[in-house]
Amino acid sequence: xxxxxxxxxxKGYQGLAxxxxxxxxxxxxxxxxxxxxxxxxxxxxxxxxRIVAEHTNRR
Length: 59
Hints:
single chain
């Protein structure tokens, strides 16, 4: 993976941002609070972008 390449990942890769500056991972909710509207919307947009690659991997 190139350093300037955008990387879309799921919640399993939360630590990837330390290794790859252009990584995008969903926001996790904390144990005490829920995600606000903007965080949920960000997660939804990220998921809609990632699903294209997931369907390609499936094939």
